[in-house]
Design brief:
Layout (H helix, E strand, L loop, with lengths): L4 E3 L5 E3 L9 E8 L5 H15 L2 E7 L10 E8 L1 H13 L3 E2 L5 E2 L4 E10 L3 H4 L2 H6 L11 E2 L1
Antiparallel strand pairs: 1-2, 3-5, 3-8, 4-5, 6-7, 8-9
Helix pairs in contact: 1-2
Length: 148
Amino acid sequence: GMKVYDNDENGNMTLGERKDVATTWFGALILVDHMNDGKGYRKWLRKTSLEVGCFLLVKQFYPGEDYSKRPKIFVCVVGDKRDVSTFLKRWRSSRVDVDSRGKACLERQMTTLHEGVLTFENPYDALDWDQAASEDKFTVTEDQMTIT
């Protein structure tokens, strides 16, 4: 499978120098209804994306800028088709959140908005992946990402 990450001399994950920019990128855009344990949930998503070698974007969105309501949460996973599938399988079968009583539970309210091949002019120019992994406030504009 395509491995997106290399390890630097300190053993930290870094974005591998890629020669094959023509790689077919596969992506899934998921809408998560809510996260009761946002911190733990996000940590699980980050850890799992690193383990399977996918890129991860997590973005909160308040419809109509109404901050009194719960935000909608969009999760975008990009990588090799097989790795993205592995990520989604793990996500559906792992206890990623807690219920109202604080008991670990599966994600029952995730909606797959899109799953398919992505085309980029050049993903490295289009997206600042280091920032993307660490920031909630991250937007991908229409001209940066077109879905075929």
